[in-house]
């Protein structure tokens, strides 16, 4: 049985990746930071199948200790302060976690066992103010937020440990991917949750920021499969993972309301400047042809299906009186 270590196990992707790797017969170790109240809602159903190790990726020794306990063959670094909006309020800690934290993981692997394969959760936010469309593995970066520039350090650290020490270290440059497990502050979940509340008569409106931004949105369970495929290749390389289709926030709102049979969605949506960002990433669209050829990976769920999955899940959640 192969052992695997996943940081960010309590997050959206960590929970789906743990399910996937358990189904493939891995022994899963999840690395989880200490919080004052329990934050394991996304992995409650997995707690008797995985081993949770306490640690924080800003704490080098805790990473080293986790390696010693888990003895993994694969290490997926999904831990991050992942909300772009908060990164302007938390620039230093975002850099500590999303930038330096990656260096700490790589150093720990290099010193403990450089044979461990390393996956870094890189992001389309690296492209920021885009230099070409669609974006591929060779498109130059221009990050537009502390999140973006912190992740840039993580990206280059991964490339450099691969080139300097011949380690199997690879970046997945993932475009936005969503699900019913998405954090409530991200725009897709804010919309699906808001639409579900409107459907159930609990709210009258949703308040958003910039409706014109475009994103390439995929379905998270498909994207964790791409992560695994990246680590199964003979050679460590970086891959763009995306649907190749971009839609505006307005499109997402329209589809989400359509899922509950409402077409005149404009009367339910307000905007407020407090949700605008100091610098916006206006348009992202990924070119995942390299993944399609080498990884045999292609996204399947389109925007309309994605919005239906998310809105229906939120209607069910709220109807059961469960927490978001
Ligand atoms: P998420 O739901 O916000 O999960 C982030 C995880 O990181 C949580 O488990 C969180 O733990 C953990 N974490 C935060 N700070 C930590 C620290 N100092 N030490 C250890 N763990 C820490 O994010 P996600 O959507 O699953 O994304 C997974 C990764 O992919 C992130 O690195 C994100 O930046 C990246 N990414 C995401 C997308 C996307 O569209 N979802 C696209 C590209 C890249 P708590 O539960 O304690 O907060
Ligand atoms: O914003 C606009 C906002 O916060 C998307 C993270 O997973 O994907 C995610 O980052 C867009 C932006 O995600 C609201 O201005 C409008 O243009 O859902 P988001 P993100 O910033 O794209 C990347 C790939 C990651 O790596 C990140 O970790 O939506 N927008 N109105 C709004 N956004 C929010 N959050 N709330 C609004 O009310």
Could you say what the CATH architecture of the largest domain is? 3-Layer(aba) Sandwich
| End-to-end separation | 35 Å
What class would the helix/strand composition place it in? alpha/beta
> Can you summarize the main beta sheet?
7 strands, parallel
Distinct helical segment count: 10
- In CATH's first tier, which class of the largest domain applies? Alpha Beta
Number of domains: 2
How is the secondary structure organized here?
Layout: E1 3-7, H1 12-23, E2 27-32, E3 51-54, H2 60-70, E4 74-77, H3 84-87, H4 91-112, E5 117-123, H5 146-165, E6 169-174, E7 177-178, H6 187-199, E8 206-208, E9 214-215, E10 218-219, H7 220-231, E11 239-241, E12 247-248, H8 249-258, E13 269-271, H9 289-295, H10 303-319
Parallel strand pairs: 1-2, 1-4, 2-3, 4-5, 5-6, 6-11, 7-10, 8-13
Antiparallel strand pairs: 9-12
Helix pairs in contact: 1-7, 2-4, 4-5, 6-8, 6-10
List keywords for this structure.
324 residues; alpha/beta; Rossmann fold; UDP-galactose 4-epimerase, domain 1; 2 domains; seven-stranded parallel sheet; two-stranded parallel ribbon; 10 helices; globular; binds NADP nicotinamide-adenine-dinucleotide phosphate; binds ligand F7E
Can you walk through the features of this model?
The chain is of the alpha/beta class. Helices cover about 40% and strands about 15% of the residues. The strands form four sheets. It has a seven-stranded parallel β-sheet, with helices on both faces. A two-stranded parallel sheet has the order 7-10. Helix 1 (about 10-25) packs across helix 7 (about 220-230) and helix 2 packs across helix 4. It is globular. The chain starts with a strand and ends in a 5-residue tail after the last helix. About 50% of the residues are buried. The model has no long low-confidence stretch (mean pLDDT about 95). It binds NADP nicotinamide-adenine-dinucleotide phosphate and ligand F7E. NADP nicotinamide-adenine-dinucleotide phosphate binds near residues 58 and 183.
